Amino acid sequence: MRLALITGLAGERLTEGERRFLAEARPLGLIIFARNCVSHDQIRRLIADAKSAIGHDDTLVLIDQEGGRVQRLRPPLGRSLPPAAAYARLYETDPETAIVAAASAARLVAYDLAALGINANCAPVLDVPVMGAHDIIGDRAYGAAPVPIAALGGAVADGLLAGGVLPIMKHIPGHGRAMADSHLELPVVSTPRKDLDATDFESFRLLQDLPAAMTAHVVYSDIDPDRPASQSAIVTRDIIRGAIGFDGLLMSDDLGMKALAGPMRDRAALVVAAGSDVALHCSGDLTEMVNAAAGVPGLSGKAMARADACFQLIEKSEPFDVGAAEAMLAAVIASHTRQPESV
Question: How far apart are CA 155 and CA 100, in angstroms?
C-alpha cells in the first residue's frame, strides 16, 4: 500500500537513512527543490534511486516550476521563464495570443521536466490577488479577476498535460487575500463567504475538473475561524469539494510552513483528517519525514482512485514544435522585460 505522503529529500544524493525510510513508508510521491539539483544526469539518478527504494514506478515526482520568482530549475539546469504576470499583461490586449503563449510555454516546461523524470508541476497558481495583500502571490498571479486567471491557468494546465506532466493548481480555495506569508505565519482572511465565493473561489470553480490541487494554509474566519483551510474539514467539505466542486487529488501545502503549529505527526494527521488525500512535507529533514509518515494512513478507496487517475494522465505525451514554442516564449520574455513592473 502507498502512504498518503509526498516527501522532500535532503540533497543531491539519496542517503542510506532516506533509502530505508522510502522503502518502509512507500510514499506516493517526492518533491524536488534546487538543493537536489546539480546536473541533469544527477537529477535523473536521484529520482531513479528514490523510486527504486520505494519499489514502485508509479510515483509522483513534483517540482515548483511556475516561472519568475518560483522556479527550482534555473539556467543552466532549466530555461528562463517569465512570471505569470507577463501573460496577464499580454491578456489585457490580446487574450487569444496570451492563452496560446501560456499553453506553449507550459508545454516546453513539461518537455524539460519529463526528460528528467519529473512528472508533476505545482502550477498553475489560481489565486486572485487584491490590493494591499502580501506579495507572496504578487506577480505569480495570472491577473486580478477570476475569468482571465482561469483562462490562462487552464492553458498552463493543458500545456503541462500535453507533455505528460500533472498540473497541480494552487492554493485552493485561494491565497490572494492573505495579508501574511504562510511560510512565516498564519494568514487570517475575514472577508465574508459570499464575497469569497464570487471572487477567490471562482477561479478554482472554473477549473474544477483539473486532476490535482494544493490547499492553502489560510484561515477564512467566516467559514471556519478555528483552523486553516488545509486542516479544516468544514472548508474541505463545504468549499473545496462542495461550492468549488473539485473532486481530484487534494494535497496539503508544505507541512513545515510556520502557518501550522504543533508536532509534525499531528500536522500531517490533521490535513488528512480534514479531507486532503495526501500530506506534503518538503524540508528533507529525515526526523520530520518519519514523524509526518506516522501521522498519515495508507492510500485507499477514493483517495487511491484519484491518485490512479493522475498516473493515467501522465502516461501520455503529444508531439509539438519545440522551436516554435521557444520562439513564442522568447517573445513573451522580451515583451515583459520592456515593461515596467506593476505595483
Answer: 7
